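ok new one. same drill as before - structure tokens go in, u give me an amino acid for every spot. 308 of them this time. try not to just spam alanines like last time pls lmao
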């Protein structure tokens, strides 16, 4: 075969178009949300982007009633049996008599709520502050103040002079307790923004600061005492309002046959056994028979109203 002729035929085949008809291209179905296919509300740059969905949905938080301890903050002995192992009410009411000056804020707060009294907090440095010593001598150690304080307030002393005098402790135990005590004192001073000593605070049973008195001058005992009396009266009015609000939520004063009282709410009742809960979340159990006649009459009225 002639080579030039063969080359000419191959070149012609490459130039000639294909005899197969071209296939029409399919148009994609138009999206109602535009070329991106994303609704405008879900686009990141849209002013109507909305609120991102969080686990559990965008439900607003449930507000916690004021002055009531949330259930999740109440610690039980056995999570599977919340009412098991609760202390007897009589054991709580028969607690040993406390000292005139508490050293634990927890104990002071519990007493304040149960007795309906404000807390006088005295930040002192008994080892290094001469004005703290003067305040103690001229006011806090006097018989008249002691008598008034026993009736009207709960006293809490926070002393920067930390000493553990328990003789039966080992050196390591004493060091450990002193460290814990110093941490507690520093935590209290930081929380209430205490700089120097003496500083005296008056707190509502709910923990609100209603009076703050810095420093002391010799001879000012009556002036300071007058201020403390005023704070106590203000606190008493606030406490009565706070207590009235709790009474609307079912809290009331309970009393045993010995005349000892507790302000609490009836949590449950079954076959003569009651579970009571105090405003700070403390629970206790008791029997109907140990309560006062007025309390037993109240329980009878409640049972009749419910057809029990």
């Amino acid at each position: 075969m002639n080579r030039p002729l063969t080359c000419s035929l191959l070149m012609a085949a490459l130039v000639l178009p294909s005899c197969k008809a071209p296939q029409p291209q399919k148009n994609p179905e138009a999206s109602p949300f535009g070329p991106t296919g994303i609704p405008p509300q879900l686009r990141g740059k849209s002013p109507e982007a909305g609120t991102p969905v969080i686990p559990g949905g965008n439900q607003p938080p449930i507000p916690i009633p004021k002055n009531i301890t949330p259930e999740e903050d109440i610690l039980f002995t056995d999570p599977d049996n919340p009412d098991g192992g609760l202390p007897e009410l009589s054991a709580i009411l028969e607690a040993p008599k406390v000292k005139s000056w508490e050293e634990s804020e927890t104990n002071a707060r519990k007493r304040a709520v149960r007795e309906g009294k404000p807390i006088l907090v005295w930040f002192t440095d008994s080892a290094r502050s001469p004005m703290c010593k003067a305040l103690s001598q001229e006011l806090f150690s006097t018989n008249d103040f002691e008598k008034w304080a026993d009736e009207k307030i709960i006293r809490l002393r926070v002393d920067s002079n930390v000493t553990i005098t328990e003789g039966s402790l080992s050196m390591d135990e004493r060091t450990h307790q002193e460290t814990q005590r110093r941490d507690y004192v520093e935590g209290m001073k930081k929380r209430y923004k205490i700089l120097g000593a003496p500083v005296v605070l008056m707190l509502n049973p709910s923990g609100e600061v209603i009076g703050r008195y810095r420093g002391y001058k010799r001879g000012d005992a009556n002036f300071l005492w007058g201020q403390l009396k005023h704070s106590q009266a203000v606190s008493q009015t606030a406490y009565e309002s706070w207590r009235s609000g709790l009474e609307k939520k079912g809290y009331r004063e309970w009393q045993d046959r010995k005349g000892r009282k507790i302000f609490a709410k009836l949590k449950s009742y079954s076959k003569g056994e009651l579970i009571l809960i105090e405003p700070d979340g403390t629970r206790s159990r008791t029997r109907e028979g140990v309560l006062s006649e007025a309390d037993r009459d109240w329980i009878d009225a409640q049972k009749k109203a419910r057809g029990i």
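The chain has two domains: 72-95+250-308, 103-247. and btw Strands lie at 101-102, 119-124, 154-159, 199-203, 209-214, 251-255, 261-270, 273-277, 283-287.
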